[in-house]
Every structure is written in structure tokens, then in C-alpha cells.
């Protein structure tokens, strides 16, 4: 149940966002206010506001006389988003390598250790959460407000595919290794290495998405 109050819509936003990412709410599915209000113990007004916020993040579309639906993100768009992220997050990694304080470096190394443990233990949910935490921490350390705002929107639109990628055999372990290399470079103040490692990590994800697109293409003919 979502507690009442000014933060209720944002709390419900987080719940619905997770349901979209994990496939409980599927692309094209209609979001019925009354049903969501009953399921989550929220008011219709809170649900309406949360759906509006999802729309602002590019996760939901509204059509006249059809209401709100989970927005399908085509694989081609997800590939483009990941390519843009590689460039922008590479910049953030380079800046973080210069700016990181000793406590921030310790925090990153802790995330790296937990990320590796989750991947090697097959805990994909924890791996996904820690992967997002690693990216967010690096962005915050970089302190580039403009890039961070752009990445926040892009992150939500592509996260559904990131979860699917993590489920592929061996991908979580490889992804963890890629991110550990990013963190090692940041913590070593290796600006060029941090940027290169981040770009390679996200370009590897883009390559996986391209493979999925090639697999899907014949099925649609």
C-alpha cells in the first residue's frame, strides 16, 4: 500500500517503474487508474500523478480516447540510447577519475565487490540494482549536471532491456567484470582508462542488443 502524503505519487512511481522494467507491466499494456489504485492501495489522484511522471520519463504514452499505455521501446531505439550513453557516461567516468575523494573511492570499491558477488552468485536482481548504483555513483562524483539530467531520462527508457540482458547466460558476470574495470580506473585516477572502460562496457551492451535485433528480425518477416 502506498502511504498518503506529498511523496505518495513518487513512491508509486518507483513501484510502477520497477514493474515496467521487470515485465509485470508489458509494452502496450493499458494502465487503468482504478485497477492500479485498488492494487496498490492508492488514490486515483495519486495514480494519475504517477502515470504523468512515467510519461515524463518516456515510459508511458497517452492517446486520446485510449488512455495511458506502457510505451514500447523498439530495440533500434534502445541500441541508439546505449550508444549515446557510452559517449556521455564515458565523459562522466573520466571526470569522476579526477574528482573522486578517498571516501568516494572506497564506496565504489565496495559496490564493485558486491556487484561481482551478485553476478557470480546468479543473483540477477541484486546485480541489476548494484549495476545501476555503480553508474549513478560515478555520475554523481563527476558532478556534470547537464549530462546527468540527459542520462537520467535515457536510463529509464533503456532499463527494461538492461534487465533482459542481465538474464542472458554469462552476461552478468561479464558485465560485472567490465564495470569493475571502470571502477578500478576511476579509483586509480586514470581518466583515459576510465573513459575507455566505460565506453567499452556500454558498447558491449549495445552489441548484445544488436544481436537480439538480428534474432528478432527474421521472426517478424
Automatic annotation (TrEMBL):
Keyword match Cytoplasm: no
SMART domains recorded:
FCD, HTH_GNTR
What highest taxon heads this organism's lineage? Answer: Bacteria
Spell out the SUPFAM superfamilies in the cross-references.
GntR ligand-binding domain-like, Winged helix' DNA-binding domain
Keywords (A to Z) from UniProt: DNA-binding, Transcription, Transcription regulation
> What is one Pfam family matched by this protein?
FCD
HTH gntR-type domain segment(s): 6-73
One Gene Ontology term of the molecular function aspect: DNA binding
PROSITE patterns reported for this sequence: HTH_GNTR
Entry annotated with the keyword Transcription: yes
The protein, known as: GntR family transcriptional regulator
Source organism of this protein record? Amycolatopsis alkalitolerans
Traced from the root, the source organism's taxonomic lineage reads:
Bacteria, Bacillati, Actinomycetota, Actinomycetes, Pseudonocardiales
Amino acid at each position: 500500500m502506498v502511504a498518503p502524503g506529498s511523496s505518495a505519487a513518487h513512491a508509486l512511481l518507483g513501484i510502477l517503474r520497477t514493474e515496467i522494467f521487470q515485465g509485470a507491466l508489458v509494452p502496450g499494456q493499458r494502465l487503468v487508474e482504478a485497477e492500479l489504485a485498488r492494487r496498490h492501495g492508492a488514490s486515483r489522484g495519486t495514480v494519475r500523478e504517477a502515470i504523468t511522471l512515467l510519461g515524463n520519463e518516456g515510459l508511458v504514452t497517452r492517446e486520446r480516447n485510449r488512455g495511458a499505455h506502457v510505451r514500447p521501446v523498439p530495440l533500434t531505439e534502445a541500441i541508439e540510447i546505449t550508444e549515446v550513453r557510452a559517449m556521455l557516461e564515458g565523459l562522466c567516468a573520466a571526470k569522476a577519475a579526477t574528482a573522486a575523494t578517498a571516501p568516494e573511492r572506497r564506496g565504489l570499491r565496495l559496490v564493485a565487490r558486491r556487484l561481482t558477488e551478485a553476478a557470480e552468485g546468479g543473483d540477477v536482481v541484486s546485480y541489476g540494482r548494484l549495476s545501476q548504483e555503480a553508474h549513478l555513483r560515478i555520475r554523481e562524483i563527476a558532478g556534470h549536471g547537464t549530462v546527468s539530467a540527459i542520462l537520467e531520462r535515457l536510463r529509464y527508457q533503456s532499463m527494461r532491456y538492461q534487465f533482459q540482458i542481465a538474464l542472458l547466460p554469462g552476461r552478468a558476470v561479464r558485465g560485472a567484470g567490465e564495470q569493475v574495470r571502470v571502477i578500478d580506473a576511476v579509483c586509480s585516477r586514470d581518466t583515459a582508462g576510465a573513459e575507455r572502460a566505460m565506453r567499452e562496457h556500454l558498447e558491449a551492451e549495445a552489441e548484445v542488443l544488436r544481436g537480439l535485433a538480428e534474432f528478432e528480425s527474421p521472426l517478424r518477416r
